[in-house]
Design brief:
The complex is a heterodimer of chains A (261) and B (478).
Chain A: E1 8-19, E2 22-33, E3 37-41, H1 48-56, E4 61-70, E5 73-74, H2 80-86, E6 88-91, E7 98-102, H3 103-117, H4 125-138, E8 149-150, H5 156-170, E9 174-178, H6 186-199, E10 205-209, E11 223-228, E12 231-236, H7 239-247, H8 250-260
Helix pairs in contact in A: 5-6
Chain B: H1 3-9, E1 23-25, H2 32-41, H3 46-60, E2 84-86, H4 100-108, E3 122-128, E4 131-135, H5 138-142, E5 147-150, H6 151-157, H7 159-165, H8 176-184, E6 187-193, E7 202-208, E8 218-224, E9 229-237, E10 244-247, E11 250-255, E12 260-267, E13 279-290, E14 296-303, E15 308-311, E16 314-317, E17 323-332, E18 337-346, E19 352-361, E20 366-375, E21 383-393, E22 398-407, E23 413-423, H9 425-432, H10 438-454, H11 459-473, E24 475-477
Parallel strand pairs in B: 3-7, 6-8, 7-9, 8-11, 9-12, 10-13, 11-13, 12-14, 13-15, 13-16, 14-17, 15-18, 16-18, 17-19, 18-20, 19-21, 20-22, 21-23
Antiparallel strand pairs in B: 1-2, 3-4, 5-6
Helix pairs in contact in B: 1-11, 2-3, 3-8, 6-7, 10-11
Classes of the chains: A alpha/beta (261), B alpha/beta (478).
Chain lengths: 261, 478
């Protein structure tokens, strides 16, 4: 929801970033305030996922210019783990599989590391077990999930649930969910949307990166940004999503081209 | 690759110190005279000298194996010292008689030779260069009828057992290095578990090569009589020299009806420096014979050291319903090369074998798994399951898998699974994006990778091995 005079959580201005010498982001702008949900949409290859990775600090991407600030602090020189400790969370489009590392021990280590950075007490395995039960049930996950190897042999839906479970325990100030809806059936989509809606509050913000309008039926965004050619070319409210769904992206791109001409 | 992985991988070798101690060393070189001298120094019976000479004569007709996937300069066998022992060695009655320098050496390595010290509950035989310097808990074990002593003492005190079993699993004709070992072996460990006895403590041998340019050629022989059980541990280190030293051991295990032998190794020989200078050539033949029905032999190895490793702890499953297991973690870094795996020979009916191999290659190292599963025509109902996983760290390391499967019985079931993964940027980024630092991430990924093997190590050994992997990998990610 849009709250008057809310704190600015994310401020990105004229961000330029490249991978292997190819520029992907070419002057990306976005401002996200506490309490808001933003959706970033756009055709394949427009730079949506790149933006989410640059925000989280993926080492393959090089920032060539612009500013990237989280609560007024520049993120440019921070490693990904430092960004995570500040409260930035990236929900992966393709979560990696790690055989042999149990999901439970991974989650607890992540939780304790981030808690420690916030000056809070760490939890021992038994305490953590109690803590995580309510989070599991929020996402309709069974406790046996914790015993399995991290994402190893998980179905597409299980992987995405596991991402939101991590979001639930890490309680980020800014969550960027990269194509969380891709590959989900309608039931899984509902569960995940319900999870995100429950976790979202007045003091944090969510950025959804998505290709389809479908997810936005369940998580209602305050702003929609259409991205093409590495920058935001149109921003609107949720009605824009419906228009995109019925008319496609082409008209927005055309509109933008004629503006440029 | 990032500096974090590099830092984890580039820890100095902590066992690389050399002990200044007076030694009784023979001149370099190998001949029948040298062998006669070794044998007479040890007051050996004629039959043993005969065994050595036969082995030597056979060795002269053999050539070094060329098939392993490793390269190293040609070894000059006339440039090796075949016998080197700490001086004034008589049979020690108590610790007080052991050279304090030796005691210090093993204390530094965390191997207390004192029975009251930290490693309580584990009997240790300590082999320094060519000889066994002490064996702890001998008397206590004797109460159970268990024999645990140096090989030399066994030859003297239990010649019938040695005569019966020496070379019965690994004959000197087996391969080039087993022939060499049979000719020149100087000491090692012997253990005998009588019928129906469950060994009340873990038995352990700690091998240390100290002298530059000496080779270590030890033999280990373990005999488990009907219905007995034993858990045996082996550890190894060597000082840091810029020349290569040869370690060519032979280990023979014999399990009779319903006997159970569990043999665990944590090998941390000096691996050479990051440019591949120095380090141990570890050319070892280890084989277990499941002679009796329902017998079981289980090998667990954690191979982290040596410049070149060439070893295939194997099981001959002769008894019906016998079981062979091989659990292995082989870690190579820098210029290390390893060609290691196992052989499972199914001969008896309903024999089962299980192979779990985890190779980790970092730096510019080359790590190969080589394994043979052979089911003979009479091995009805034989079953094997093999899993070979490789993990690559960085862009310059190499992992290979060479599985050989030979089945001559229709009723056999043989399964082989293999995977290769890489600790790369994406995996690390995933951990980092959750706030977990890169060193912790690598350690968690590696520990996860080796978990299936480490769970088979005895508790204290598993802790040691985990620490060792951490040390070996420190600085390799980033």
């Amino acid at each position: 929801m849009i709250i008057k005079n809310a704190e600015t959580i994310l401020s990105v201005h004229n961000l330029v970033a490249s991978i292997d010498g190819t520029q992907i982001l070419k002057g990306f702008d976005i401002t996200v305030k506490a309490g808001e949900i933003h959706a970033i949409m756009g055709p394949n290859g427009s730079g949506k996922s790149t933006f989410s990775k640059v925000l989280a600090g993926h080492p393959s991407y090089k920032v060539d210019g612009g500013t990237l600030e989280f609560k007024g602090q520049s993120l440019m020189d921070l490693e990904p783990d430092e960004r995570a400790k500040l409260g930035i969370f990236l929900g992966f489009q393709y979560p990696v599989e790690v055989p042999g590392v149990t999901n439970g021990s991974f989650l607890r280590l992540a939780y304790n590391t981030v808690q420690g950075a916030r000056g809070k007490d760490e939890l021992d395995p038994l305490e953590f077990d109690d803590f995580i039960q309510s989070k599991l049930s929020l996402l309709g996950m069974d406790a046996s999930f914790l015993e399995r190897s991290l994402n190893d042999g998980f179905s597409g839906g299980e992987k995405k649930r596991n991402e939101i479970l991590q979001m639930a325990i890490l309680e980020p100030t800014l969550a960027i969910l990269d194509e969380t809806d891709s590959g989900l059936d309608i039931d899984a989509l509902r569960v995940i949307a319900n999870g995100v809606n429950t976790l979202h509050g007045d003091s944090d913000a969510v950025v959804l990166v998505t290709h389809y309008q479908r997810l936005l039926n369940y998580i209602e965004p305050d702003f929609i940004h259409v991205v093409d050619g590495g920058r935001v070319i149109k921003t609107g409210d949720k009605s824009l999503a419906h228009e995109l769904e019925s008319r496609g992206y082409e008209w927005v791109l055309d509109e933008n081209r004629s503006k440029a001409a | 690759m990032s500096t974090a992985i590099d830092n984890i991988l580039n820890q100095p070798y902590k066992a690389g110190f050399h002990t200044e101690i007076e030694t009784d060393s023979m001149a370099r070189g190998l001949s029948e005279d040298v062998i006669r001298t070794i044998s007479s120094k040890k007051n050996e019976p004629d039959w043993l000298l005969e065994f050595r000479l036969n082995a030597y004569r056979h060795w002269l007709t053999m050539t070094e194996p060329k098939w392993p996937n490793v390269t190293y300069p040609k070894i000059d066998f006339q440039d090796i010292i075949y016998y080197s022992a700490p001086k004034s060695k008589t049979t020690k009655k108590s610790m007080d008689e052991v050279d304090p320098e030796l005691l210090k050496t093993f204390e530094k390595l965390g191997i207390p030779m004192n029975e009251r010290a930290a490693l309580a509950g584990v009997a240790v035989d300590v082999v320094f260069d060519s000889v066994s310097v002490t064996t702890t808990y001998k008397e206590k074990l004797a109460e159970y009828g268990i024999i645990f002593c140096s090989f030399s003492e066994a030859v003297r005190d239990h010649p019938d057992l040695i005569k019966k079993y020496l070379g019965s699993v690994v004959p000197y004709t087996d391969n080039f290095y087993s022939a060499l070992n049979s000719a020149v072996f100087t000491d090692g460990s012997f253990c005998y578990i009588p019928k129906g006895v469950k060994c009340p403590m873990d038995l352990s041998t700690y091998f240390r090569i100290n002298t530059q340019d000496s080779g270590q050629f030890e033999r280990t022989l373990i005999v488990a009589e009907e219905g007995s059980q034993v858990c045996y541990l082996e550890g190894c280190t060597a000082p840091q020299f810029d020349t290569n030293q040869l370690h060519a051991a032979v280990v023979e295990l014999i399990a009779l009806d319903d006997a159970d032998i569990k043999y665990s190794t944590v090998q941390n020989w000096y691996a050479g420096d990051e440019n591949g200078v120095g380090g141990i050539f570890n050319f070892v033949t280890k084989r277990g014979l499941c002679k009796g029905k329902n017998s079981k032999i289980s090998w667990t190895q954690v191979e982290t050291g040596s410049a070149v490793t060439w070893k295939y702890p194997s099981c001959v499953l002769l008894g019906d319903n016998s079981v062979g297991e091989f659990y292995s973690v082989a870690l190579t870094n820098h210029m290390q090369q390893a060609d290691t795996g196992t052989k499972m020979f199914h001969i008896g009916k309903n024999t089962r074998s299980r192979i779990i191999s985890k190779g980790i290659s970092a730096g510019k190292s080359n790590n190969s798994y080589r394994g043979l599963v052979k089911v003979s025509p009479k091995a009805d109902g034989a079953r094997n399951y093999s899993q070979c996983d490789s993990m690559l760290i960085g862009d310059l390391s190499c992992a290979n898998t060479f599985p050989y499967i030979e089945v001559a019985n229709k009723s056999a079931t043989v399964e082989h699974e293999a995977s290769t993964s890489k600790i790369g940027e994406e995996q690390l980024f995933y951990f980092l994006s959750r706030g977990i630092g890169s060193e912790e991430a690598v350690s968690m990924i590696i520990n996860g990778f080796v978990r299936d093997v480490f769970m088979h190590l005895p508790m204290e050994f598993a802790v040691e091995a985990t620490k060792l992997l951490g040390l070996k990998l420190e600085g390799s990610v980033g």
